[in-house]
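Example 3.
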Amino acid sequence: MRHFILQTVLAVFLIGIVPSFAFEIEEQKAYDGLTGGRQLAILSTADVDVFEPIIRAFQIQNPKVDITYVTSGSTNVMKAIYEEAAQFDLVISSAMDLQTKLANDGFAMEHTSEKVASLPVWAKWRNQIFGFTQEPAVMVISESAFGDLEVPRTRQELIELLRDNPETFKGKVGTYDVRSSGLGYLFATQDSRNTESFWRLTEVMGRLDAQLYCCSGGMIADVASGKLALAYNVLGSYAESQLAGTDGLRIVPLDDFVGVMLRTALIPKGAKNSSDAGKMIDFLAEFGANTNLPALTGLPPISENAEELGTVLRPIKLGPGLLVFLDKQRRETFLRSWTSSIKQ
Amino acid sequence: MIRFFSTSSIRRRLVIQLSVMAALLSIVFFLVVRTVAEQAAADTQDNILSASATSIADALYSERGMVRVELPYSALSMLGTISEDRVFYRIVADGETVTGYDDLQVPKTSRRGRGSQFATSQYRGEEVRVVSLARVVSNGDRGADVRIIVAQTRRGLAAISSQITTTAMAVAIGFFLMATALSVLAAQSAVAPLKRLALSVTRRGPKDLRAVVTKTPGELVPLVDALNNFMLRLRASLTRSEEFIAEAAHRVRTPLATVRTQAEVVHRQMEKPENRKALREMIRAVDESSRSAGQLLDHAMVTFRTDQLEKVEVDLVELAADLCERLQPTAELKDIDIQKHLPNAKATILGDPILLQNAARNVLDNAIKYSSAESSIEVRVIQKSDGIELKVIDQGRGFGDADLRKLTGRFSRGNNVDDVVGSGLGLTIVDEVLRVHNGTLSIEPNEKGEGACVTLFFKQS
């Protein structure tokens, strides 16, 4: 009991001394190791409650590591490292393109170990970025709103369905606001590469007065509450964990292709505790193999044969290709087209 | 070095020279492969960079007086296919950055042209390969000078290069080892005829002066010819000297016989004991000389016959019996009893009957000569499992502790024979005869007391 109080006091104290950041943070939490002593600062886009089981499990193996977990949006995470040189030891983000840019532009440190060596080649880049989850973009529908309507299996069917039933879907279609959501932008740009129907779909959604969201969570909640009939490009992992207790919701992976995002970790240059950050990366690299963490977090681990599943699953490839849509002009033109399509 | 080469073996020289050549070739091979492969890898990177820049150039357009670009996805993703290298780009129109990395240097190029130009420089702390492509984009009424710069780090290239280096090194070392092994074999086969020749010459007996007929390669023919020529001359010279000795002995022996006969006649007529004694001394000296001359003749004959040995079947039993009969009178003069122990069956070997007879006679003659009067001599022929022994056992003074090898030397005599007439050639003849007949001579003390046992052993094959 006394020990517990001491830890709590210590935790509060530590929160007190964590420096304030110039960029906008969403949440910040300190986890003390059993013995403590070494500081590991993590900047992440994953919510605290999603990531907490991983931190706890890591600290069981590494009791000396005190962890400060700070969450923010992917764009802010990028900005913190790229522009403000914020002091973190590990950066975890769902925005693969921004992580790639960090590595490409020389803001990441190399990490090599047996554990990351056993990761599939497509799940890492330059030994600087390491994927540890693969999360599909799915469509979530409300069964009650659909009623008798047939659930579309492809984007083409989805376009036809929306076009034919404007009264059902008017104002009840949700998707990412790609201007503010890094992940939304990533999914949208990859969609635009993968299929010609992306722009038509965007136009159709625009005509139906689509609702725009910053995050998957909000969309799923609104589908569950009946405010939305359909949410497009929702993070499958979030949907699954939130759908567990909700009736009338359905996850629909489209048959033509399913974009798959890798949640990635990198050690920023200037990290004070790169060795523990490396340990965390090793831990994440095999987080699917040896624990019940995937179930606890709802994050699907990397699976070796994801590429073999081939035709349907399209894991987004790490590499310089991701820099293209981060190009100032390319982003400008993309957002301009997208905005004119969605706002009608 | 020159001295080393002139004295070291041909084989070693060949191996060293071939190995050095193999090493040089391996090094050349390694350098060539590495250079070519690295050039190819570098060209690959240049080609992809060029393709990337070209695809960006194709995506240039102008909008409201501004040069714009819609960066194609493939322009950068293609650079990620060969390696995990960092990629940078910049598009400049009339000196103003359109998009990309502002601080990426525009490489200075010597000539203006539409083609891709390449340079290697430093950017963000790493070596980068830079391609620069110039385009003119029509922008309203005038054209804008646009430069597209795409850069990629060279880590992948370094990895490929080190892999190529390792492979080329391994192949070169393998090549060198194989070539060295082959050069050892080649050297061995090159000197094999020499070895064969040397062996065929070494294996000859000391008297074998026949021409060498071993098959030899062309290069060795002069050497073999010279050797054969030399041996021919040597043989002629030896023959001449043997002939000379025989001739001399012959010339001496005949007058000696006359001198002896005359001396005996005079001896009988002499009455004064001192004169008779002097004459006896003279006769004895004449005998000694005559015997020596006889043995010299014998020896010359043996040498000649052993040179041109003709082998026929010889029955040693018959030979021994015949010999005993022939020497019976000499033995009787000293009242020596020759006991023959001969088997009933024949004991034949292949050999020259005259040489064999001569050898046997010399042994028996020696036995009679060195035995005291009224003793006996045993002559035995014994059939053994692997050959035939001819033994002569006497009760004489033996050979003392003299060395057999010395005794068989020319003109060498035992050290206890001063009072007996002898030339020192007897055992030499025996030894030579036995040698050409593949036999052995052994001399032991008589087991049954005084005297010696001389054994001639002939191997039967």
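Chain B has a mean pLDDT of 84. Chain B has three domains: 11-162, 204-308, 309-461.
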